[in-house]
Please model this.
Amino acid sequence: MRLDHLSYAAGPDGLAATAERLGAALGREFADGGIHPRFGTRNMIMPLAGDMYLEVVEALDHPASDKAPFGQAVKARSALGGGWLGWVVAVPDITVVEERLGRNAVEGHRHRPDGTELVWKQIGINGLIADPQLPFFIKWETPGDLHPSAGADEQFSLAGIEIAGDPLRVSEWLGESVDAPLEDVKVDWVAPHGTPGILAAQVQTPTGIVRI
Model:
């Protein structure tokens, strides 16, 4: 189990403008990631060192975004003005998580602009919706060299995350200590005084750490 990516919901100005704003702050552009047809969403990504990446995601005007939990989660966060949606951990065997949570993972896929298809399974979105401090789980079914972090500039990495939440609750959800998937990333846990979840991400850039 390891930290895979952070997901940021587009604001009222839309996907491209949100990605452009975050990219300007970080000093690097986001790339078009493609459409998630099963979820009614699309994304733009920024690869980071350490097999991680940042994702900006937007719900499409499509029935799938109303039916799929991930589309619902994105829509709800964007309706609040956009911002951090959640964090995602990659697991080597998603059946273990399925058995623990008592439900099946759903399949996801998207085609990159070059036509390459990325395929994965994910589970735990309903947990995220109910309690935004909780991550969801992903199992990639495409080769590692196609992972969205491929081609990362090693000068850009995730230095830290600020999460409003309870590490004990998150560890219970993960089925192991929260320190395991986040061992390479500094985490500041803040007692929530409102909605729990990611408050900010700290990204190491060539010019220093940028807080988003």
Notes: The helical segments are 15-26, 63-67, 69-79, 94-101, 125-130, 167-174.
